[in-house]
Amino acid sequence: MIFPAALSQLTRAVAIVLCCALLPSTLHAEEEVVVYSARNEQLIKPLFDAYETASGVRVRFLTDKEGPLLARLKAEGVNTPADLLLTVDAGNLWQAARSGLLQPVDSTLLQERIPDHLRDPDNLWVGLSVRARTVVYNPDRVDPAELSTYAALADPQWRGRLCLRTSNKVYNQSLVAMLIAEQGEQEAERIVRGWVENLATPPFADDTAALKAVAAGQCDLTLVNTYYLGRLLKEDPALPLKIFWPNQGMEDSGVHVNISGGGITRHAKHPEAARRLLEWLASDEAQAAFAGENLEYPANPGVAVAPLVASWGEFRQSPLNVAFAGAHQAAAVKLMDRAGYR
Ligand code: FE
Fold first, then answer.
1. pTM higher than 0.85
2. Spacing, Cα 238 to ligand 1 middle (Å)
């Protein structure tokens, strides 16, 4: 039997234990952040290590492919440990937002560091690197004076000269979605039908295979993300592959760009820590490494590009918000199917 005095002592002891068990963990709760990343470990680990050193905040992360990560976030629901989602392509980020997996981030720093067109209009995600999807041609077979716009690649002069990656990759779905946003669905379909008529070979499984076909003379040019060219040129700088920046005329819309980026999860346990990590990833300090490691362009326009990337010259990018890549994705997929783009 416990007497009242002993009971009050016990209550006090329990209270002390509770206090001291809870307090440190409450403090710790803001001292870590959990990231689900479709960007690979080789890219993010050095950055997270640097952030841990700079901030004292522990970064725990899980890397996987886009699909499984999103499925996991959905399945975990309110119980997810994830605070931040990192992935590639505005089409994917838009889908994550659409599925209710993200929450808005209110951050002046992000607004200052990342241009409007690379951020979700509702602040559900933000771009952290820019990937330009542009023309790469074989200089033995193409005079760059022949090149002008994405649309002009539908002209009969390119019959039997074009290589493309398949239409089932989100990169091409986003490219066509942005064409729809720029030119309307009818004109976008005319262009895509022209590309398909101009194909030299069936579409390739990835950008690298399309580039190798151009280098081998199977076709004259292709449309790829520039970092794939960068990887090939690092292995063999003598490859006959050159970049052309389309849509640079006064009336033209600029080069098609997409992003890799991130958003705070809907059920984040450490949303403030997630916001601070996003802000840091957008900072001058982190941007050069975040973009440079994969030969992409920094989303923060104040940051210099890697030397190989700089050698490709400057270009004007499309100012259209990359959210259109998501908003028109379903229409783009249907359009490519109608146009016979496999
Ligand atoms: Fe890629």
1. yes
2. 23
